[in-house]
Specification:
By secondary structure, this protein is of the alpha+beta class. The protein contains 21 helices and 16 strands. It is 44% helix and 17% strand. The chain has an eight-stranded mixed sheet, sandwiched between helices. Bound molecules: histidyl-adenosine monophosphate. Histidyl-adenosine monophosphate binds next to strand 6, strand 10, strand 11 and helix 17.
């Protein structure tokens, strides 16, 4: 069938999905240089690499990052692994569970009961229609759930918070027993995965702190723009162990500033803050919510912030809306409401940074968008980046290991940097050049020269030179043109004359100087550091 006769859909061109992109040579040289440099810096601080899967159970991210965060509620790539069951049902069932969780967090037990009753009705219907696996376990789980829900509904009417949270836990346990099939999510970040792996492999048994780093793609369904992608790359590091000494926080931050220095990025600001702990933060959040609910303030907030007053008032603090800035400036600052321990921790962090000569700016508005943080939060921004100016972000997450079912008393802190943005910043700073030119182009002519060309190409490659050997014979003039276009430094010429005289010709393209050498002298000719083998900093 001729091309013209093909149906339209067979001839259409495929393109990378919106928000994703191909990173091509020579840009990949800079990416590789950056990754190698980052590994070198992190290894000098005794971090070791961890590789975790790119997808995990959806509930891992939902629980660790938080149901109400933008990342979890709007941006995750989630797929359901169902067998003969119907996707539509699963979607409805899961969304009822999510909305029940959110309503519970928002202290609205009446709505929790409504959501869970809808869940039960749907699940029973699905069970009857054979769309939810009709296993004895599922039948028992739904019965148990109904009972727990009755208790919960009764308590919601009459009792105080404590009993209600007790019944909520039992209801949650019954809910978890209903097997809806697996829901999987492409990782939007890697801290949850690292903590999951730490727990799964009992890494608390290892001597000292676990100091882990990772490099890889993350996925968030955000609105794409410069510096913001749906598949983007992070390099991150996490420290997990029994100590929460501020020296750990400071050392982690110093590691980042070392990396910035190696990349010769000079224009950046390190912002730090403390967002308190389970002791002092809830009191501050109550105060903040009360302030935000004042009619003259609430009415001036945008729709997003109004919603967040309910779900997560702290996030109002990092709103970028120009019309909200004047209001936010006047809101109570968390730094003025820290408990004694948090205040001391924060003061020590600042002293530790000063000791390491790491300049910082305090930013009471730096609350970060993920729920697991407590105490230290930090970000590095750069004015050379434009709207998406956060090069990296991180903070402490002391309760997370326990929350995800791990041992008690394990503390954690970490950061992730946006590799896409670091690369932009390195390019903007124009100090690092990482492309490695082609060292040698082999111009061979004639059947007799070919075996020698193949052999010598291998000899030079073993010596770690970058060598191009054309697969087919080329006319001399064409070969020189090609070598020039590829940016080769030398052309190794092997023709009938060279074979007959047992001498090779080497031409330096920069000045056209040509010389003859014997095959024995070839390796030594290229051995002195006339060639740049790696980019700077390696
Ligand atoms: P995050 O602030 O969500 O933190 O992301 C860290 C960095 O990843 C950002 O500062 C930014 O440079 C980059 N980034 C985030 N989203 C995008 C995107 N859509 N396109 C391009 N770059 C992006 C975390 O992910 C935490 N896990 C960091 C952490 C580790 N905290 C403790 N340990």
């Amino acid at each position: 069938m001729g091309e013209a006769a093909k149906p339209e859909n067979e001839r259409r061109k495929f393109r990378a999905i919106k928000g994703t992109r191909d990173i091509l040579p020579p840009a990949t040289d800079l990416w590789n240089w950056f990754e190698k440099t980052a590994r070198g810096v992190m290894e000098s601080y005794n971090f070791a690499e961890i590789r975790t899967p790119i997808f995990e159970e959806t509930s891992l991210f939902a629980r660790a990052v938080g149901f109400a965060t933008d990342v979890v509620s709007k941006e995750m790539y989630t797929f359901e692994m169902f067998e003969l069951r119907e996707l539509e049902y699963l979607g409805h069932l899961r969304s009822e569970i999510w909305s029940a969780e959110q309503r519970y967090k928002a202290d609205d037990p009446g709505e929790v009961v409504t959501s869970l009753s809808r869940f039960l009705a749907l699940a029973n219907q699905a069970l009857d229609e054979g769309k939810l696996a009709r296993t004895p376990e599922n039948q028992t789980a739904l019965k148990e759930l109904r009972e727990q829900l009755n208790f919960f509904a009764q308590e919601a009417r009459v009792s105080g918070d404590e009993l209600l949270s007790w019944h909520w836990e039992d209801t949650g346990l019954a809910l978890a027993e209903v097997d809806l099939g697996d829901s999987l999510t492409l990782r939007p970040e890697a801290t949850a995965s690292v903590v999951r792996a730490y727990i799964e492999h009992g890494m608390q048994m290892l001597p000292g702190d676990a100091k882990l780093y990772y490099i890889g793609p993350m996925f968030r369904r955000e609105r794409p723009q410069k510096g913001r992608y749906r598949q983007f790359y992070q390099i991150g590091a996490e420290v997990l162990g029994t100590s929460d000494a501020p020296a750990i926080d400071a050392e982690l931050i110093q590691m980042l500033t070392d990396l910035l220095e190696r990349c010769q990025i000079e224009k950046y600001t390190l912002l730090i803050n403390s967002i308190g702990c389970a002791e002092c933060r809830p009191k501050y959040v109550d105060l903040l919510r009360a302030e935000l609910l004042k009619p003259d303030i609430f009415s001036k907030l945008g729709a997003d912030s109004q919603r967040r007053v309910e779900t997560n008032p702290l996030r109002v603090m990092d709103s970028k809306l120009p019309e909200e800035q004047a209001i936010i400036e006047k809101l109570p600052k968390i730094s003025e409401h820290l408990c004694e321990e948090c205040r001391t921790h924060y003061e020590k962090l600042k002293r530790e940074l000063t000791l390491r000569e790491v300049p910082f700016t305090e930013s009471p508005r730096l609350v970060r968008g993920l729920d697991y943080y407590m105490r230290t939060t930090f970000e590095i921004t750069s004015p050379i980046l434009g709207a998406q100016n956060a090069l990296c972000g991180g903070g402490r997450y002391d309760g997370l290991v326990e929350m995800l079912g791990g041992p008690k008393g394990i503390k954690g802190i970490g950061f992730a940097l946006g590799e896409d943005r670091f690369i932009d910043a390195i390019e903007e700073a124009r100090k690092v050049r990482a492309t490695r030119p082609l060292d040698i182009f082999i111009a061979w002519m004639g059947e007799g020269a070919y075996p020698t060309a193949v052999r010598l190409a291998h000899v030079l490659r073993v010596e770690k030179h970058r060598v191009e050997l054309p697969a087919g014979e080329m006319k001399f003039r064409k070969a020189l043109e090609r070598a020039d276009k590829l940016g080769a430094r030398y052309v190794l010429i092997i023709g009938d004359d060279e074979i007959a005289s047992d001498m090779l010709t080497i031409k330096r393209l920069a000045d056209g100087v040509q010389e003859k050498i014997s095959e024995e002298a070839l390796v030594d000719f290229f051995r002195p550091p006339v060639l740049t083998k790696e980019g700077p900093g390696s």
